[in-house]
Design brief:
Length: about 425
């Protein structure tokens, strides 16, 4: 999509948000809403701050992920007012703000102080943001019932939001290709990270989350956070979970690559790939997302049997007795938007058989979700089963071998359409 078309969609997006927010404010009796962009807190006992990426509702309107100490005022029937913090400072540069059409729909002002602008004539005002940032601002701070309705405005994405997510996927797919090639060329986790950043043109601090890059057994730690500088003596597997932030919107993609000569593990990767595509095919309006999660466990059971990991237990028993949860301990996915784990996914608690599931709603057009089945060989989860009454049904030699590969996860970003789904990651060639 040309940038001119995307920028035109952003103006429509702001008009849609104005309507959604106006409805929420009037329903709760507020005359205005002041949104803080937030600011990075300082490290304790230090003069350095943590990385900063902005507060979700502020990004929903502006997409300005790196803009600290700024404020957005929303009032029913009035043009939004955006105060951007732009101090005269020789220590740091101010964020560049190119002229774009959306600025015609928002009144943009620049301020040189970090405090909120005066709201003396704003009427009954709600103020949302980090409590430490909004503490001194008059008004109702983070009113719970209003926040629930504001989170709901982010559930059904506008065409602009989907266009941004498309671009975020396209860029991230380039990074994943570079990461795979670096791994197959013998690169270390650190070198894989650099290759991903170079291909995406994005610093790690600007990414929506720290990339998860696990080679060999490290792939069995779901959120593995360290990068070995030296490559392994034998490169058996790579799991990379990494995304891109584009105009505030996040992609979240995971791919697993088997090393040369890893036939058994490669077959499992291929099997999970086929399962993942079937699960993506389930995404459609009216589908219970929890049902997709439960169907994943059926597929994991079938994979374990087909791979010779388990024998003498049928697939139904593997699920009912909790065996598949030891190999697939997390949820099938979550909402995606200006936050990687976007809001409003759990209006109902997660079911007892899926305690880590982040989305429990029925799918509707405009929702964007991830589909990310996994199959891991995690010693702490497998030990109780292998040493228990069912241990004799498992091929311990096969499991011991696969432990060295860590695990598999495959993740796509999928839009629910009026009559099915659109897989943004596969469209981008991922």
């Amino acid at each position: 999509m040309p940038d001119t078309e995307l920028l035109a969609l952003q103006t429509d997006h702001i008009q849609t948000l104005q309507q959604r927010y106006q409805k929420a404010l009037l329903a709760h009796g507020y005359d205005g809403l002041l949104i803080s962009s937030g600011a990075a807190p300082m490290r304790y006992g230090d003069d350095q701050s943590y990385p900063f990426q902005g507060y979700g509702p502020f990004l929903h309107w502006t997409g300005l992920a790196g803009q600290e100490h700024s404020w957005l005022l929303i009032r029913p029937g009035r043009t939004p007012v955006l105060w951007l913090y732009q101090p005269v400072d020789f220590w740091h540069a101010n964020l560049d703000l190119p002229e774009e059409p959306w600025q015609q729909a928002v009144e943009v002002r620049f301020i040189q102080h970090r405090e909120a602008p005066s709201m003396e004539r704003a009427g009954k005002l709600a103020v949302i943001g980090d409590p430490a940032t909004v503490a001194q601002v008059p008004g109702d701070h983070n009113p719970g019932r209003l926040l629930v309705d504001l989170e709901e405005t982010r559930v059904h994405k506008t065409p602009y939001e989907i266009a941004c997510l498309v671009r975020a996927n396209e860029i991230a797919v380039c990074g994943h290709r570079a990461a795979r090639d670096t791994f197959l060329g013998g690169g270390s986790e650190f070198e894989i990270s650099l290759a991903y950043q170079r291909a995406t043109g994005q610093r790690e601090a600007e990414a929506p989350y720290q990339s998860i890059i696990g080679v060999n057994e490290h792939a069995g730690t779901l959120h593995y956070q360290f990068y070995d500088i030296d490559g392994p003596a034998r490169a058996r597997s790579l799991l990379i979970d990494a995304g891109v932030r584009f105009r505030g919107y996040c992609s979240d993609i995971t791919r697993t690559t088997p090393g040369a000569g890893e036939g058994r593990f490669a077959a499992l990767v291929q099997g999970l790939e086929q399962l993942q595509r079937r699960l993506c095919g389930m995404v459609a309006p009216g589908v219970d997302y929890v049902a997709i999660h439960r169907k994943t466990h059926d597929g994991i059971a079938a994979l374990l049997s087909a791979a010779g990991v388990v024998s003498g237990l049928d697939d139904e028993a593997l699920v009912e007795q909790g065996v598949t949860r030891a190999f697939f301990p997390h949820g099938i996915g979550h909402y995606l938007g200006v936050q990687v784990h976007d809001v409003a996914g759990k209006r109902e608690p997660s079911p007892a058989d899926a305690p880590f599931l982040r989305l429990t709603r029925t799918l509707e057009p405009g929702m964007v979700v991830t589909i990310e089945p996994g199959l891991y060989f995690i010693p702490s989860l497998l030990a109780p089963i292998l040493d228990g009454p069912l241990g004799g049904h498992f091929n311990h030699a096969v499991i011991d071998d696969l432990r060295g590969c860590g695990g598999i996860r495959i993740e796509d970003n999928v839009v629910v359409t009026d009559d099915g789904a659109r897989n943004l990651t596969r469209e981008a060639g991922g």
